[in-house]
Amino acid sequence: MTDEHTRDHRSQVKDAFPEIADIEAETLREQVIEAWCLGLERGGWIDIEDIPYAWNIHEVTNVEHVRGVTRIAVLSAQEQRDFHGADPDFDVIRAACLLHDVGKCYEYVDFVDDDVLSTPDPEYATAEVPHSLSGYALAHEVGCPLAVRRAIPHFIGEIPTRTLEAELVKSANSASSNAITQATMGISLQEWVEKYSQTS
């Protein structure tokens, strides 16, 4: 992909996810952007807004879902802090939420029209690897801390140590997903998983 696409991806990521600016650590902000740019480039995506929420739900974009998860998790973390006295790491929560579905850049290339893609890299772009695993790998590749990486595998539960931040990402993902499946298909997330999931 050209340098022009790479520059465009960077601006697309920053525009799509204004929540990145709320991450206090500059290095972590850059890592989130870099992971998305790598995923978009290798997946061959021309526009970040063309990645669907799910392989069979195209009415909602992945961007909308990721932003919803981030917003839900941050509000929940604020309640955990203010009401319960917990001490969640907001940078970890924001970064992990923003990256929890970056792996869809690889997984969903076979479920969209060819005209929204340039040239997907076959080494990465495949539905063979669940997006939570490829998202973990992208976060690792760009140097995200373990606390962020362990909060990304949200669906299959591949990481045995579940932190407060990881549980927030997982529950916020379920909350957003339930809203999306109900609004678009009239079913719960569990019903969607039982009927359509490719990883269960």
Describe the overall structure:
- This is HDIG domain-containing protein.
- InterPro entries: HD/PDEase_dom, HD_domain, HDIG_dom.
- It comes from Halogeometricum borinquense.
- Residues 58-188 form the HD/PDEase domain.
- The protein is mainly alpha-helical and 200 residues long.
- The protein has a single domain (9-196), classed as Hypothetical protein af1432 (Orthogonal Bundle), CATH 1.10.3210.
- The chain is 56% helix and 4% strand.
- The protein has 9 helices and 2 strands.
- It has a two-stranded antiparallel ribbon with strand order 1-2.
- β1 (52-54) and β2 (57-61) form a beta hairpin.
- α2 (26-43) runs parallel beside α4 (90-99), α2 crosses α6 (131-141) and α3 runs antiparallel to α4 (90-99).
- The longest helix is centred in the C-terminal third of the chain and has 22 residues, at 164-185.
- The mean pLDDT is 92.
